[in-house]
Amino acid sequence: MKNILISVLSLAMFCTACSSTWVSTLDSILAAAAPALINILQIVAVANGQPVNSGLAAKINTDAALIKTLAGDFAVASSLTAPGVCSQLQAAVSAYQADQTLVLQVAQVSDQNTQTKIALLADLVGGTVVAIESVIPSCQSASVAKSFRSAPPYSLTTFVNRYNGILVMPTGNPAVDATTQKLRLHRHSAFLRAITFVVPTSGGTRHVQQ
User: How many domains does the chain contain in total?
Assistant: First the structure.
């Protein structure tokens, strides 16, 4: 399933003078990937009867926001500053990828069905890192990237549908099954980029419009 997703996300198309296209694509990926990753932490917490790892959830949101900010900066950077901004952007992507590794390290539950669900979700979300890296131009070609970029036609519909399909598969654990019904990603705009997701708070959960 992960290989299929990577193929969908990483099929390249080329365009001229489309300096903002790849930034928009990157935003779309993060709008789904970050909350999808945080949802895994929510499932782990419910399955283990423990508080959500709010520190890691906050780090994921912070790192995703930094990627979006640096991508916007890189898109308008001069030929002189572009390589430096690009290096910062790649470092931010590496930090986000490390977040996924941290999630996998804490995503251990005793219920086998729930553990299988977590593994499938993590595998699916892992493919988004490949998509993100495919969108961002290399620092070595930063001067050329202003006029010519490649951007994969990211299918948010495909990702959200597959993610939600795995998410709501029954595990037999009443608490987990009730929670996952509330964690589904929802599409609200014609371009399928506005995502409502649930993030943990000290008092439970809250919905955030992105």
Answer: 1
Has residue 26 got a pLDDT over 60?
A: yes
Count of other CB atoms within 10 angstroms of residue 115 = 17
pLDDT value of position 200: 41
pLDDT of residue 148: 36
Is pTM, for the whole model, over 0.85? Answer: no
| Residues facing residue 12 across a β-bridge | none
Give the pLDDT mean for 122-126. Answer: 92
Structural element, H or E, at residue 71: helix 54-75
Residue 178's contacts (CB-CB under 8 Å, 6 or more residues apart) are none
Look at the alpha carbons of 166, 205, 46, 29 in this order and tell me if their dihedral is positive or negative: positive
User: Dihedral of the CA atoms 55, 116, 156, 204 (nearest 10)?
Assistant: -40
Q: Report how far residue 59's alpha carbon sits from residue 62's, in angstroms, rounded to the nearest whole number.
A: 5
pLDDT score recorded for residue 89 = 93
Residues making up the chain, counted from first to last: 210
H runs (alpha helix) in 11-152: 21-48, 54-75, 82-106, 112-135, 142-145
Which pLDDT score, from 0 to 100, does residue 138 have? 72
Write down the pLDDT at residue 154: 57
For residue 142, what are its two tokens? 């930063």
209 neighbors 193 (Cβ within 8 angstroms): no
Rg (CA), the chain: 17
Which residue segment(s) compose the domain that 150 sits in? 2-9+18-209
